[in-house]
Design goal:
11 helices, eight-stranded mixed beta sheet
């Protein structure tokens, strides 16, 4: 996979929002200078706590948000320059999103079959028996067997895991090359989370779908991801293979995330200096994690660290790594 041409290329991406009104209005940057790529059939796990910019980054990839600056290319298409509905439709055929809440992402007054028919008709122009066969195929591919028994059901008649399988089937309906999976298992029972990840893995192997897998859980990030990228305060703190980042974490933030993960082998005191949220305002200086880092120095508050390679192989944005 590393030798293949990437299906996703993001360079120096910045996303800004304005908060407040009038003279009190200020801009924040929940995504601030992020770069990465994903190869066909590869899983990049994007890890960080709430407010780190993960979901904003994922939503910008599928153009729910417009970038302030930077470049995004998906399957050769420049996402940041999209202006027309036709170009957006082309993007939707190559890039789909699976949301965190499988009930909230489905229309409660539409049946499972209706959810899938509208997508298949729009993008593949199928009707009649061919349309119904395609819906049946999609449902069985995600483990809803027999598919014909699920077409007439409404979301409230399904379990949480079944609803998420419907959401996955809807994403697959357009034959995407990239899926942004935003916390797809966090609202499911623990007993079925592994089943959903196994399903996503099988789809990756069978269809060579690339994933941006967004999670706060380093354990599932390592299990499912080929590579891991850790974000905090809108910036990348550490990136590398799953074994590099989780096995030999180089950034203090990554080590603290591991120490706070249930079942982790890392036994460190949680030595944070603050519990405040990161400063996202445009014009901030220094490392975004400096106010919480147990190893902070004056340099950290003054200069923003750039990503640099460690002997263990991953890249870390830390002056003292």
């Amino acid at each position: 996979m590393p030798d293949e041409k990437p299906v996703v290329v993001v360079h120096d991406l910045v996303v800004r929002f304005t908060v407040g009104h009038g003279r009190a209005a200020r801009d924040i940057a929940p995504v601030d200078g992020v770069s990465f790529s994903i190869a066909p059939g590869e899983v990049l796990s994007l890890v960080g706590e709430s407010g780190s910019g993960k979901s904003t980054l994922g939503r910008t990839l599928v153009r729910f948000h417009r970038p302030f600056s930077g470049q995004i290319q998906i399957d050769g298409q420049s996402v940041e320059t999209i202006r027309s509905a036709g170009a957006l439709k082309v993007l939707r055929k190559s890039t789909q999103m699976i949301f965190q809440d499988p009930f909230g992402s489905l229309n409660p007054v539409r049946t499972v079959g209706q959810h899938l028919r509208v997508v298949v008709r729009r993008h593949h122009d199928l009707n009649g028996g061919k349309l119904e066969d395609r819906i049946h195929e999609l449902l069985e591919r995600v483990g809803l067997i027999p598919g014909y028994d699920f077409k007439g059901k409404y979301p409230h008649e399904l379990s949480g895991g079944q609803r998420q399988r419907v959401a996955i089937a809807r994403a697959l309906a357009v034959n995407p090359k990239v899926i942004v999976a935003d916390e797809p298992i966090s609202m499911l029972d623990v007993s079925i989370r592994a089943d959903i990840l196994k399903l996503l893995r099988k789809l990756q192997q069978d269809l060579r779908v690339a994933y941006l897998y967004i999670t706060h859980d380093l354990a599932s990030a390592r299990y499912f991801g080929d590579r891991v990228m850790v974000m905090y305060g809108g910036q990348v703190m550490e990136t590398g293979t799953a074994d590099q980042v989780v096995g030999t974490p180089g950034h203090p933030y990554t080590r603290l995330l591991l120490a706070s993960t249930a079942g982790s082998d890392v036994d460190l005191p949680i030595g944070e200096t603050s519990i405040e949220a990161p400063n996202l305002f445009v014009g901030r200086t220094g490392c975004p994690f400096a106010h919480r880092c147990p190893a902070v120095t004056e340099l950290c508050s003054r200069e923003q660290p750039m990503l640099r390679a460690l002997p263990s192989g991953q890249q870390v944005a830390c002056h003292h790594a």
